[in-house]
Design goal:
Helix 6 crosses helix 8 and helix 9 runs parallel beside helix 10 (306-322). Helices cover 45% and strands 16% of the residues. It folds into three domains: 12-36 and 98-192 and 340-351, Rossmann fold; 43-90, no CATH class; 197-330, Rossmann fold. It has eleven helices and ten strands. It starts with 11 loop residues before the first strand and ends in a 10-residue tail after the last helix.
Length: 361
Amino acid sequence: MAELTEPDRPGQGRLAHAPEGHPPVARAKVGVILANLGTPDGTDYWSMRRYLSEFLSDSRVIDYPRWKWQPILQGIILSKRPFSSGRAYAGIWNTELNESPLRTITREQTEQVRAGMAALFGDSVMVDFCMRYGNPSTGSVIRRMQEAGCERIVFFPLYPQYAGATTATANDQAFRALMKLKWQPAIRTVPAYYDHPLYIDALARSVEEVYAGMAQRPELLITSYHGVPKRYLEEGDPYHCQCQKTSRLLRERLGMSGEELRVTFQSKFGPEEWLQPYTVEEVARLAESGVRRIAIMAPAFSADCVETLEEINEEIRDSFLHAGGEEFTYIPCLNANDAHVAMLIDILCRELQGWATPVAG
């Protein structure tokens, strides 16, 4: 790292051998970016349209040829879907901060991780968050870190299970942002953590805490993961296998039998077959077969969002109750709880090895 003399202003200084008048250079730091999926800026039609257009134009998400897909998306889908999606977001919107719960929770996670990293590394590590779609954008956060003197960045997609449509596209966007910089920081991307012991334990503890407050234990625990087309699995995406392993490890940690925990997939979009069983159909089938009490959680989401607060806790709940179920319990995502934050910090400490040195004491 460049040798600096006394700072000309906070956080900056002159290079030791630079000529008089050389512009101040930010002191070298390491950046940590927590990356989540994204969020619209508002629930109105145009905010939703901008967000959905960016999201559904991503070839990692919808990989149909652009010449075929874009006319359908821009003409048919985006003339109607922003209205229905806006209503869904409006039902869960954080009106106090005028933002989606995903942004609120991701900020809370970031603040807690930042405090934990400061306790370990002092001011040598800078922590922020970005969204793959919407704001704060990946590019803006990387630029801000580079300007603040981050010569190295650990980029952490908050997806426990790897998928091309989540982890890969987040990483793609980070590297696209680097392409626009004259001085690129070095970057490390954090791998999926679907079988990390602290992750499995945090999931298990969240189940145990909810169950401990219930008069009657649910007959089944459903682990509902966001779906992807079945074709992606056949083309080599490991997402399905990693979801299955997460649920198996969770079941073993909870001491459940194979009949007490089920894996399902939600959020099907479009005409082709997606990973099955579909959550909304499976909970109805369970109710029709005589199951009266279920609990459901979403291990693929690091923070509650429209897919959990609206889709699971409203649409999927209604499917179960209307089919004859009696008690539906939603177990929230790990969000900013202590066990989750401790896991994120543990992973980051591993990824920062060789780049950042813990402060003494």
